[in-house]
Amino acid sequence: MDYIAYYNEIAEIQGADPQATARTRDADGTIPGEARPLLFNVSAEIKNTYHELGCTLPPLLEGCTVLDLCCGSGRDTYLAAQLVGPAGRVIGVEPVEARLNIARKYLDQEMRQFGYDAANVELVHGAPEDLSFVPDNSVDVVVSNGTFNLSPDKDRYLCEVRRVLVEGGEFYFTDVFTDRRIPAALADNMKLRALRLAGALYIQDFRRLSVANDFLDPRYLMTWKTPLTDEEQALLPDIAFATITTRLIKTDLQEDICESYGETVTYKGTLPDFPDYFLFDKDIKFPTGKTCTVCGNVSGLVMASRYGKVFDLTGDRSVHIGDTHGDHIIKCAPDFTGVVDEDDQPIQASCC
């Protein structure tokens, strides 16, 4: 498939107005606190031609190599360039050359504005489904802002993301998902796809696709109801849409369910935007200074990724305790006297 031609067709349908196709949360609420003042260093044309409202940049980017997929005119690319610092690197990939040219136009100016002696940004005309110009195991963080659901081949997209990530690397992105599968006739409608709606995955299909690409434990950090016009809702009746920020970690330490090894973590409170807690996902916050029993997937994040800098970990995986929530297939057997289910307690306490 000619991915570049596909994305250019989408761009032609979207037109020049970035607000007409932005489906992520309002920028004032989602730009990280540490990145918000850095917006003043980004040229006005870049910001005014950027096709997203939110900002998908995780914490702890200093010194990282970041890959920004479908970077558009480069707003998040240049924010990331400041967050990684002069020792880090940012690769912005954009299939629509007219948008990429805006980012390229200001490259030297942005580097001077940041006070960098050498550019730490590379801008590449390409598509997320073919990242052959990026070596295996070379990227710390991949970000995407409202563009994953535009992909015509999401399986290949995720496969490429996993290939380029280092062990412990993170795919951190925001996009639109649904509560059911969109009928094929609507899903193939290029106009609806260009509006970031028809390409949205059913959330359980996304989970299955993630697991198939060895991202065994997708975590959903923040969710918002996706705004639809009356006309759009009429075209897509009974389908609920949500905009979700998702974290996928590449590590062999994760499993497809939460299993316990008796490990604990304690958040140190050292992230500037999170002095009181660490947001692991929409259901789990780790209070600063509190020791919490965790499943192996959470301890794997601490052991394998850059987030280990902000946690203390106890445990070594020498003892396997089993299913964090209690394996009821085993424990409902006659005469079993072990841990009962969670309604009757006691049960293994866990963050999960």
From TrEMBL:
Keywords: Methyltransferase, S-adenosyl-L-methionine, Transferase. Its EC number is 2.1.1.137. The keyword Transferase applies. It comes from Adlercreutzia shanghongiae. GO terms for molecular function: methyltransferase activity. SUPFAM superfamilies: S-adenosyl-L-methionine-dependent methyltransferases. Residues 62-200 form the Methyltransferase domain. Gene3D superfamilies: 3.40.5.100, Vaccinia Virus protein VP39. Belongs to the methyltransferase superfamily. Arsenite methyltransferase family. It catalyses: arsenic triglutathione + [thioredoxin]-dithiol + S-adenosyl-L-methionine + 2 H2O = methylarsonous acid + [thioredoxin]-disulfide + 3 glutathione + S-adenosyl-L-homocysteine + H(+); arsenic triglutathione + 2 [thioredoxin]-dithiol + 2 S-adenosyl-L-methionine + H2O = dimethylarsinous acid + 2 [thioredoxin]-disulfide + 3 glutathione + 2 S-adenosyl-L-homocysteine + 2 H(+); arsenic triglutathione + 3 [thioredoxin]-dithiol + 3 S-adenosyl-L-methionine = trimethylarsine + 3 [thioredoxin]-disulfide + 3 glutathione + 3 S-adenosyl-L-homocysteine + 3 H(+). PANTHER family: ARSENITE METHYLTRANSFERASE. One of its GO terms (biological process) is methylation. InterPro entries: Arsenite_MeTrfase-like, Methyltranfer_dom, SAM-dependent_MTases_sf. This is Arsenite methyltransferase.
